[in-house]
Amino acid sequence: MTLLASTPAADWRLAGVLFIFVAVAVGVSLVAGLGVAREQVVAAIRAVVQLAVVSTVIAAVLGSLGLSFGFVAFMFLIASFSASRRLLVPVRQQMAWVGLAIACGAGPVVGLCLGSGVIPLNGAGVIPIAGIVIGNAMTAVAASGRRAFDELKAQRGQYEAALALGLQEPEAVRLVVQPTAREALLPTLDQTRTVGLVTLPGAFIGVLLGGGTAVEAGAAQLLVLIGLLAAQALSAAATLRLIGSGLVFREGIEPERRRLALAR
Fold it and tell me: Is 36 helix (H, G, I), strand (E, B) or coil?
């Protein structure tokens, strides 16, 4: 039997196992009082519906490089919208800037992977690597931005004192948020440090289940993990720079010059 035969079959057995998993999650939530039983059911249903639709769409576009890039653009738009919502910022005004922060991380990494020939320039190569990198860049933007806004709100006095001492606004913001900037990058750092020892992440398992060798799986996982280190660092840095410049802001935590302008 080949490794390819070990991939899950989309039949009644899979449906039964998934139902049991959801039932266990909901049952534990109810018994332990975790308060997320309804959310777990909704999340599971959404996952089934969304993946069914996405699988159908991807199967249709894989044969066309143009359509594949169109699907990547759609993923990027959804990521920009989702990150804006997570940051609790005005979506219409700031989605483009949030998208720029995502693009600062995802663009160079995906471009280098495809331009170097490490990933084949076809639908089957473009969509998976772009999806992984864009998704993780989105997470870095949301995590670093939310933490920065929380810190600016909690340390408003320090921020205003820095301005009073003559620091420019970007420097004052950086002074407040810099100590927490690394927190958004820690999950990927930890995963990279422990890969192969504690976890075997998705890219590794995916290549194995797809019939690849262990060496090929390891190479794919290294490309993903180390590429994500670069993408998330770039996106987090871009997010903090945009917040410092006042281009990305949250209502009630406006930059000083915007707050003064609104007061006039």
Answer: coil
Please provide the average confidence, as pLDDT, over all residues in the chain: 83
Cβ neighbours of 220 (radius 10 Å): 23
Q: What percentage of the chain has pLDDT greater than the value 70? A: 86
**Is the CB of residue 162 less than 8 Å from the CB of residue 172?**
yes
Largest Cα separation within the chain, whole Å, is 74
Q: Which residues on neighbouring strands pair with residue 199, listed in sequence order?
A: 195
Instruction: Tell whether the model's pLDDT for residue 148 goes beyond 50.
Output: yes
With 0-12 / 13-18 / 19 or more C-beta atoms within 10 angstroms meaning exposed / middle / buried, residue 3 is middle
Residue 22 burial (CB < 10 Å; 0-12/13-18/19+)? middle
**pLDDT score recorded for residue 79:** 95
Q: How many residues does the chain have?
A: 264
pLDDT in tens, 27-50: 999 999 888 999 999 999 999 999
pLDDT for the residue 60: 86
Angle (CA) 131-90-264 rounded to 5° is 150
Q: Where are the alpha helices (DSSP H) in 155-264?
A: 156-164, 169-177, 186-194, 202-209, 214-245, 256-263
CA-to-CA dists, residue 12 to 2, 15, 17, 19, 204, angstroms: 22, 5, 9, 10, 27
